[in-house]
Amino acid sequence: MTSKKVRHILDTIAGMFPDAHCELNHSNPFELTIAVLLSAQCTDETVNKVTVDLFRKYKTPDDYLAVPLEELEQDIRRIGLFRNKAKNIQSLCRLLLDKHGGQVPEKHEELVELPGVGRKTANVVVSNAFGVPAIAVDTHVERVSKRLGLAGPDDTVLQVEHKLMKQVPRDEWTITHHRLIFFGRYHCKAQNPQCSACPLVDRCPEGKRRMKMPIKRKSNK
Prior knowledge:
By secondary structure, the chain is mostly helical. The chain folds into 2 domains: 3-20 and 135-209, Endonuclease Iii, domain 2 (Orthogonal Bundle); 29-129, Endonuclease III, domain 1 (Orthogonal Bundle). It has 12 helices and no strands. It is elongated and about 60 Å long. 34% of the residues are buried. The longest helix is centred in the middle third of the chain and has 18 residues, at 82-99. Mean pLDDT is 92; it is low at 213-221. GO terms for molecular function: 4 iron, 4 sulfur cluster binding; class I DNA-(apurinic or apyrimidinic site) endonuclease activity; DNA binding; DNA N-glycosylase activity; metal ion binding. [4Fe-4S] cluster binds at residues 188, 195, 198, 204. Its cofactor is [4Fe-4S] cluster. Belongs to the Nth/MutY family.
């Protein structure tokens, strides 16, 4: 895709969602890391409902380790995969204390070593907590990128990330990540995308297919 077409897509989405931002409530890098870990296969809305009480009760890694695993499980039981996530949280907190002085590391390569923290989570943390440009590819970013031709239909998540990094100016990586999420979450939805009201439908092969009217067959009469 040409740089002009990419610019058009970025500017259009920016106009639609100028205030796009991280919707996970947090007040520091540690809370953000916990929130993103909890958000795997779960909506941000549900995570925010759980963390309201969670972040009042647990302030530091020591706090999470001071309770039995079963108690932490109950505190996050509304979250999908809560048992595994509770285990990861305690393991993560133990590693933060043992290796990082209880602080969330700023380096991407150190973040991905933490239990329950993958590449996407690390990208979210470095970009939102530490101001390092990054593009985290979640299900919305992947879907939108492929629909708009910014990535290939069969590309892996890592390939989507690399292609976006090449096409999007580095100083726009983080805000583009948020805007693509908003575009996918509130407009270009997985099941019911708003193709009829989409200013980018002309750039979207799937949108054109969805909007295509049935072809009328010519009568032989």
